[in-house]
Amino acid sequence: MTLSIETTTADHTDPASKDEAKGPSRGSAVTVKLAGEVDYATAPQIRTAITEALEAGGVSVVHVDVADVTVLDSTGIGTIVVAYRIARDMGVSLAVVNPNRFITRLFTVVGAEELLAEPTDTFTAKDAATAN
After folding, report:
1. Residue 1 contacts residue 42 (beta carbons within 8 Å)
2. For the purposes of burial, counting CB atoms within 10 Å of the CB of 114, is it exposed (0-12), middle (13-18) or buried (19 or more)?
3. How does strand 59-72 pair with strand 3-19?
4. At what angle do helices 74-89 and 43-55 cross, to 10 degrees?
5. Domain locations in the chain?
6. Strand bridging mode 23-38 / 3-19
7. CATH code assigned to 3-10+26-131
8. pTM summary value
9. Is 79 within 8 Å of 107 (Cβ atoms)?
10. Where is the composition biased (Basic and acidic residues) (predicted)?
11. Tens-place pLDDT, residues 69-101
């Protein structure tokens, strides 16, 4: 049950979020990089890291980088989904980035595919055919 969390912040301009008078909205992009096991035992650490990022203010985007995640259970997914909803209510975009095929499939199966930064074709006709 080990988890490493690294948080980085960078300036961010979101051209999609544009005010006619002011131009693209600006704010910080925070990346919460997870490495290791994302499960029942480590979910509170993830919750704390994302909460601190959101409460810092001036954040327009939160990326949850899962490239180095080795285990992801339902509690871990649930923690990220709740963070997504809270961020959305605060007007902050939250997306899961760098998922491997297994993590992509998990998010798709539980109906949380909208959290993935990149659209996925995890369940194409080809995949369905090979699954049988």
Report:
1. yes
2. exposed
3. unpaired
4. 10
5. 3-10+26-131
6. antiparallel
7. 3.30.750.24
8. 0.78
9. no
10. 9-23
11. 999 999 999 999 999 999 999 999 999 999 999
